Structures
1.
Amino acid sequence: MATDTQLVIFDTTLRDGEQSPGCTMHHAEKLRFAHQLASLGVDIIEAGFAIASHGDFNSVHTIAREVSGPRIASLARCKREDIEAAARAVEPAAKNRIHVFLASSDLHLEAKLKITRAQALDNVATAVALARTFADDVEFSTEDGTRSDLNFLVEMVNVAVQAGATTINIPDTVGYTTPAEYKQLFETVRLRVPGSEKIIFSTHCHDDLGMAVANSLAGVEGGARQIECTINGIGERAGNAALEEIAAAIATRHDRYPYTTNLVMTELYPTSHMLGEIISFTCPPNKAVVGKNAFAHESGIHQHGVLSNPLTYEIMTPASVGFSGQNIVLGKHSGRKALEFRLKELGHTLSTEELNAVYHRFTELADRKKNIYDQDIVALLHAPTTEPLVTNVP
Ligand code: KIV
Ligand code: ZN
C-alpha cells in the first residue's frame, strides 16, 4: 500500500517488455526472472497477458503459484474472456491483481476499436465491476491517455473508480507527453475525480522521445504513487521507463525526489545482467546505471580524479547498484596514475623511473591497440625493447 511518500514499483518486463521484438522469453526463463524481480523487491510483477496464449497463461499461473513477495498481475482487455482468464491465472498468488485496460483517445476508439465514447464507458463499467468479482485489487488503464480529450479522460477514470478500480493508470502509450504536461495531467485528474484520494494513480511511460523516466518522475510529482517500468527499459518500440534509472534517480536525488521504495538497490545490476542473458540483446555500454561503461573511466583526467576521490566524477558508487567490475579502463587516453594503480592491483610496485619507462611503452601500445588487457600490461613490464609484446586475449 502506498503512503504519502512510498512508491509502488510495478514491473512489466514480463508483459510490456516481453511483447517487444527480440524479448521473447520461455516459461522457465520467465519464472527464473520473476524470482529475481522478487529479490529486487518490486511490489508488483505484471507476469503476462493471460488470454494471449496458453504459454502466457501458464507462465502467469506458475509465477502466481511459485513466486512469493510481490503481488502478481495479469493484463486483460475489457472482455469477459480476458478477465476470466486473468482471474484464473493469478488465482494462486497470495496477493493478486487484475489489470484491465481500454483506450480513451478518440483516435484509438474510432480507428482501432470502432466504438463510441458511450460504448467505451459502458465497457469500462462492466469490465471493472466483473474484475472486482474476482479480485479486491483491480487496476484500470486508460490506454493512450495522454492523447485523450481531458474531459472524456476524467469521465472514463470516474466510471472506473465508481465500478471499483483501486488503481488508475494513465499511460503515455506512445511516448508523446512531456514532464510538465504529464505532471499537470495527474494533478487535474486527481482534482476532478471524486474519491481520488482513495485511489492510487500510476504512471506508465514509453520512451519514444527519450523522456519516459523524466515523465514518470514528473507524474509522481503530480501525485502518482505507482510507477510502471521495465528492467533495462525494454518494451514496445523505444521501450518503457527503465526501472533502474528511476530507482537510481530517487536514491541519488532524494533532495528532489523525497520518495521511498522497497527496492534492494544492489540487485539492480544482477537483474539487468540476468535479463541480458535471457533475451537476445544486452543494454548498450553507455546505458545509465547498468551499462558496461556506466562507471568506467578511461581518460587520464577523469582517472586521476576518481582515484583521488570517486565523487569527482561519480554521483553514485558502482557498489550501490550491485556493480563490482573494473571501472578504471586503460586505453590511449589514460594517464600514469591509472597505469600505476592497475600495476599495483596486479601486484607490481614500480619506481618513478620504471613507471616512466613502462608508461612510454604503454602509450605506444595504446596507439595501436583498442583494448588493453591485464596481460598486455604485465607483458609491458618484461618487454625488452620499445616494441612491447601485443596479446589479443579477450
Ligand atoms: O502502453 C500502454 O498503454 C499499455 C497499457 C496496456 C497499460 O501498455
Ligand atoms: Zn505500455
Note: The pocket of 3-methyl-2-oxobutanoic acid (ligand 1) is lined by residues 16, 101, 141, 143, 169, 171, 173, 204, 206 (CB under 6 Å).
2.
Amino acid sequence: MNVIVANDYKEMSQTASQMIEEQITEKPDSVLGLATGGTPLGTYHELIKGYHEGRADYSLLSTINLDEYVGLAPEHPQSYRHFMDQHLFRLINIDLENTHIPFGKTEDLEQECSRYEKVIDQIGPPDLQLLGIGENGHIGFNEPGTSFDSETHIVHLTDSTREANARFFESMEDVPTKAITMGIRSILKSRKIILLASGERKAEAILQLIQWELDEQFPASSLKSHDDITLIVDKDAYKKVQRKG
Ligand code: PGA
C-alpha cells in the first residue's frame, strides 16, 4: 500500500485530483469509480477547477458510482445521483449518458443489482476507483461483517448509519432504510484504488487499516489483497499511525 500524507484536506484533495487528471491524460476514455460523501468533495472541486484551466477533458470518460439509496428517485435532493450531478457531472464536460449510478427507485431490487454488476463488468471495471472510509471501516455501504466475496447487493442500513445521515433529511422517517451498494469483490475489480481520509475522526480507522490483516469485521482491510492501493490521508487522519510509529 502506498501512503501519501498530506498536510491538510486541501493538499489531500489536490493530490487525489492530480492522480485522476494523470489517469485521464494517459487514457482519455478511462473509467473512474466514484464516491459520494464529504471527503471527495474537495477532490471534485479541484477537478472542476482543473477542467476550467484546461487540465483535463472529460468528453470520453465513463464513471461508475459505488452506491445509491433505495427508494429515492434520481432527482431527489438527497439521492447520490443528484449529489454527483450537482457537485461534479454538470460542472465538467462529461456525457451524462456515460455516468452510472445504481437506480434506487426500482421495483425489482435483485434485478437492479445484477444489472449494475453487469455494468461494472462491461463498462468497467474502473481504471481508477476513488474511495472514502467510514469510522467503522466501511467502504461504499459495506458495513462490518460484509463478505469479501460480495458483489452489488442490497444493504439494510443500520440505525447508526441512518442517524449519521439524518442531518441531510427533514426527519428520521425520511431517511431510507436500504441502499444498493457495490460489494467488496466488485470494488476490488478496479485496476487502481485511491482511498481518501481526512480529519481526526478517521484516525482510528486509518490506524486499523494499517494494522489489521484481512478481516471481514473491518471491510477496508479487504484492500490489502489488492496490489495497487494508494492511501491519501491528511496529517490529522494519520495521527495515530504516526504516534505508534
Ligand atoms: P464521509 O463518508 O466522506 O462523509 O466521511 C465516508 C464514508 O462513510 O464512506
Note: Residues 37-39, 132-134, 138 surround 2-phosphoglycolic acid (CB under 6 Å).
3.
Amino acid sequence: MVITTTQFIKDYRDVALRWFADGLENLSPLQQYQTLALVVKGYAARDWARSKAHADKTQQKQVYYFSIEFMPGRLLASNLLNLGLKDVVDAGLAKLGLDSAAVYAAERDPGLGNGGLGRLASAFLDAMASTGMAGNGNGIRYRYGLFEQRFVDGYQVEVPDDWLRDSYPWETRKENRAVIVKFGGHVDLVPGASGHLTAVYQGTDDVLAVPYDTAMIGYRTGTVNTMRLWAAEPTAERAHALAETARAGAITEFLYPDDSDTAGRELRLRQEYFFVSAGLQSILTHFKRTHGDVRLLPNFVAVHINDTHPAMAVLELMRLLLDEEQLAWDQAWQLTVATMSYTNHTLMAEALETWPLGMFQDLLPRLAQLAFEVDRRFRARYLSRFGSVLVNRAAPLQDGQLHMANLAVIGSHAVNGVAKIHSELLKTTVLADLYQIFPDRFSNKTNGITPRRWVQLADVPLATLLDDVIGTKWRHQPQALVALRSHASDPAFLSRLMAAKHENKVRLAALIQATLGLEVPADAMFDVQIKRLHAYKRQLLHVFGILEHYLAIKKGAVRPPRVHVFGAKAAPSYRYAKAVIRLINAVAALVNADPDCAGKLAVAFLPNYGVSLAEAIIPAADVSEQISLAGTEASGTSNMKLMATGALTLATLDGANIEIRDAAGKESMAVFGLTEQEAKALRPQYNARERYERDPVLHRIVDMLTDGSIPNIESEGREIRAELLDYNDTYFVLADFADYLAANRRLDALWGDPVAWAKLATENIAASGRFSADLTVQRYGREIWRVLPEQPV
Ligand code: 26W
C-alpha cells in the first residue's frame, strides 16, 4: 500500500473535519487517535474486502478460531506496521504538530481475556493473516472486559473496564449478519415426510446475536482477515421492553475473570452456547452461499475449539446438520469430527469444565438430547474393545455431569497440547483414557508469539540494532535471527545490545516513578515476573527470594542491585491469590522504604497488568521468572517474549521453558528445581514442615509471614503460612527454595561479567525465532486444519 506522508496528512485532515467538524488544534488526544484509527481503517478496507472476495472466489479453505477470550492489545501501531505505513504516518503526525506518543496512548486495550489463552488467540489471528491463511476469530464482544486492577492499601480492588465508553473505531457492526440464538423451551422430535425425525422447538427464549467485525491485518501480506465478536441483543419483536434489553444483553455484559476455576454458573453456559451457535450458524450460511453442498464442509471449513469453553460446537454443528440440513446421524458425525479440532491449555483439574446435566438440559434441551446420543454411541462403539472401566471414564456423560474435554476429544479429529511436556502429560493424565482410544488424534503444537508486537513495536532500540547488524530479513523470517550468533563475541555489538536494553530500562524506571512514585536504579538487574497470580506459578517463591536478599542486606551482604517487577491480576474470588498480592505489596513497602536497601533492592508491583503494560515491561527485563512447579504450566508465553528481547530465563523445567533451553542452550539460562517426574515421586512423602524445620533461612522467612517483620499482613500471612505448613505446601515452594536461591546466586555471579551476560542475552535472542507464532500456526495449518500443503518430509 503506497501512501505518501502528504497524502496521509490530507486524509487525516479530511477525516478530522468529517468526524469532528473542527480544526486539528481543537481535537483532544482521544479524538486525534480516533481520527487516525478511522484513516487507517480506511486504508485497510480495500485489502479486507479483496481478501474476503478472493477467499470465496478461489474457494480457499477457511479456519474459524473459536475462543471465549481474545486479547488483541492496542491495534493502531501494529496495524500501521503491518500495512507498512508506520514511518509515513509518524512523519505525518510530526508534520501536523501532534504528539504521537499521546495519540498512541489514547487507544483503549480491549481486555477481552484473562491471560495466556486469550493473548495466544489474538497472536494466532495476527499470525494467520501474516502467513496468508484465511483465519477468522469467533468470540464474544463483552461490554466490560477484564476488570481494571487498582491497589488500595496493598489490596487488589477490581474496577469495571468500561472499554467501549468512547466507542471502538476498529470494529464494524454487521446487523445484516445477525442471527437468532435459542435458549430453553422444549423440543419434540416428530417424524417428518422422509421418515426423518424433525426437531420442533417450542417456547424458546430467543436472543439476537449481532456481529462486530474487526480487521486482522497481516504483516505486509495484503491479507486481511476478520475477528468476529458477537453481542447479545433482544430480538426485534421484544426490543421495545427495557427489561428485555437488559436481560438479553446480560449474556455478553462481562467476561468471567477466572482463569483456572470453572464458575459453573448458568450465565457462563449461556455465553459459551451463544457465541458457538452464532458462529456456526453464520459459517454454515456463508458456506452454503459459496459452496452449496454441506457434505463438503470439512474440505472448506476448519473450526478450532480453544480449550473446552467452545466445546459445545461439536453438539451445535450436529444440531445444525441433523435438524437444519436433515443429514443422517453417521454422516453428520463424520462431517463434525472432520471439521472440529481442540486444544487443551491446562492440566488443572479445577479448570476442566463439566456442566450439570440438569442445568444443561434446561437451557439447551436439544443439545442435551444430542449429548445423550453421542454418549450412547460412544459407549456402544468402544465398550467391547476397551472395557467398561476405561469407557466409563472417557465418556462425555458421567455422574450427571457433561465432561466438556471428553466431548471435545470425541468430537474432533485432532487434539493438541501447547508444549512438548504438556502434550505428553495429557496422554498420561487428564486425557489418558481417550488417548488409548484415539492415539492418532493427539499431537503437540508448542505455542508461539508474534515478533511484530513484542520486538518490532515494543523494543525499537533492539529492532534498530538488529537491522543494523543482521539486516531486516528477521522482520519477515524470525528464524533469521540465528545470524546474530556470529556477533555473540563481538564486544562492540554486545555493548550496543546492553545499551539498547538500558534505554528500555530507563523508560520503565520512568513509568515506575510515574505510577508508583518509586525511584529505581536503571542499571540494576531488572527481575521480572508477569503473569496471572496463581499458586502454581509460585509468585510466593519469588517473594521468598526477595526476603532472603533483604535479610542478607541486613547482614551486610553485597550483591548486584536488583529491581523486582511484578505484574499480576488475581481472579476476584481467589482468596489465596489476593493474599499473595497483599504480601507482595507489603514486602515492596518494607523494602522500598528501608534506607539499607536503597540502590540495592527494590520491588515494583505495577497495577493492572495486561497487553499494553507488558509491552512496557518486557523490553526492560534482564531476568525472566518462569518458576512454576514442574508439570503445572502448560506452556507459558511471557517466557518466549522475554527471551526474544534478551532476558535470561530463571526457570524450572516446565512447559515451554524446556524448549527454550533446547533452543538457546542450557548455559543460556538458570535452571533449577524438581523435574515433573521428581515432583510426582516426592508428592507421597513430602513433608513441608520438615523442610521448614531444617532450613534456618527458610524458617526465618516463613516466620516473617506472621511475626510482624512485614507490617500489615496479619491475616494474609497466616493464610499463606497455613497453606505451607498445615496444607503441606501444594506447589512445593519450600522444596524448591534452596535450589532457587542457588540459581539466583549463579545469575548474580554472571551479572558481574557484563560481556558474558550480554553474550547469553544474544544467544537467547538468536534462538527466539523458533517461537514465532507464524511457525506455530503453520504447523496447525499443515497438520490439523489442512489449509496448507503437507511439508515435504
Ligand atoms: C473456566 C475458567 C478458565 C478460564 C481460562 C479455565 C482455564 C482457562 C485457560 C485455559 C487458562 C489459560 O490461560 N491457560 C494458559 O494458556 C496459555 C496459552 O496456551 C499457556 O501458555 C499457559 O501455560 C496456560 O496456563
Note: The chain is about 50% helix and 15% strand.
